Amino acid sequence: MTSALQGITLKGSAELVAEFFSYGVNSILYQRGIYPPETFTRVTQYDMSLQLTTDPQLKNYLTNVVSQLKEWLFECTVQKLVLVVTCLDTNEVLERWQFDIECDKTAKESSVPREKSIKTIQEEIRSVIRQVTATITFLPLLETPCAFDLLVYTDKDLAVPDKWEESGPQLIDQAEEVRLRSFTTTIHKVNSMVAYKRSDSA
Q1: Chain Cα centroid distance, residue 134
Q2: Could you report the per-residue pLDDT of 27-78, keeping only the tens digit for each?
Q3: What distance in Å separates the CA atoms of residue 163 and residue 174, rounded to the nearest whole number?
Q4: Residue 80 to residue 99: CA distance in whole angstroms
Q5: Contact at 8 Å (CB) between 27 and 34?
Q6: Which of 48, 64, 74, 86, by CA, is between 20 and 30 Å from 161?
Q7: 167: Cβ–Cβ under 8 A, 6 or more apart, which residues?
Q8: What whole-number distance in Å separates Cα of residue 97 and Cα of residue 85?
Q9: Sign of CA dihedral 35, 100, 9, 73
């Protein structure tokens, strides 16, 4: 993975997709005001400006999640990642950012790199993150303090690691749904969507 011309391997694909989730989750937490804006710092990635948290606890939490996710992506055992936004007072689910992951498991048998440049994949990722940011502009305002949770769906027979716990799907009653762009490394394909609670006036 030293050159963009070498194509993409399973390991490289897992790293790219995990990196996307790291930046994507940070972007949503920043844009939705789940954490104060002053706890983020601006970085350049995918030829665009993005925000990364500087909050030590959140950084540690996200690093652990992304590292575990990378492992599951490499093993092709992860099916989706969901970022759930809930009202702090009532625990009601207000938004559900869902990223479905399709893994081409034949990549586990063959180490031959796929013919798709990292640059092309990163351009697709940039389009997804841009669309996430644009989508946020028409979502209902989050008028109460909110918390978030990350749910990871894996193959059924996978053991739950320490510090992780089983969870329900945390669905939204009477949700509006918006499908977002997808991107593919040719080994992993990520389809994105957001579901949100309709405001009473809708």
Answers
A1: 16
A2: 999 999 999 999 999 999 999 999 999 999 999 999 999 999 999 999 999 9
A3: 32
A4: 5
A5: no
A6: 86
A7: 149, 151
A8: 8
A9: positive
| CA separation, residue 152 to residues 72, 113, 117 (Å) | 10, 27, 28
Pinpoint the alpha helices (H) of 32-184.
Answer: 56-75, 118-136
Please, which residues have CB within 8 angstroms of residue 74's CB and are 6 or more apart in sequence? 10, 11, 14
Instruction: Write down the pLDDT at residue 202.
Output: 39
Q: What is the dihedral of CA 43, 66, 145, 126, to 10 degrees?
A: 40
Confidence band (pLDDT; 50, 70, 90) for 136?
Answer: confident
Q: How far is CA 135 from its chain centroid?
A: 15
C-alpha span between 24 and 35 (Å, rounded): 15
Task: Give the number of other CB atoms < 10 A from CB of residue 73.
Answer: 26
pTM: 0.90
